[in-house]
Amino acid sequence: MKGSTIRTGAAIAAATAILAGGAAAGAQAATATVGGGTWSYGSYLQIWPPKTCYSDYKHNSAYHSSTAMISRAYDTDYANAGYWSRASSWAGAAYTCYTYWNKP
C-alpha cells in the first residue's frame, strides 16, 4: 500500500498546484534594453494554460507597444510614455513563442 500512498500524495500535490494557479516550470525569460526602453519577454509552462507567452515593454518618453504570439493566438498591448505595455497569449506546450516590441 505504500505505492498507493505515494500516488495519493502526488495527486494531492498536483491538486494543490492547480488550486494555487499552477507552478511555473520550464520558464524562459529575458530582459533587455532596446529602442531606449526596457523589454521583458519569454514563456513559461504551467498546468493550465499549458504554455503562456508574454512581452512587456516600457518606454519613458514615447508611445509604444508589445506583442506576444504563439500558435495562431496573439495579443498586442499599447501604452503611453512611462507605462508598461503588457501582452500575453497561450497555447499548447509544443508551440513556439514569438515576442515583439515597437516604438513608432
From TrEMBL:
Keywords: Signal. The keyword Signal applies. The keyword Signal applies. Residues 1-29 form the signal peptide. It comes from the Bacteria. Pfam families: Lactococcin_972. Gene3D superfamilies: 2.60.40.2850. This is Lactococcin 972 family bacteriocin.
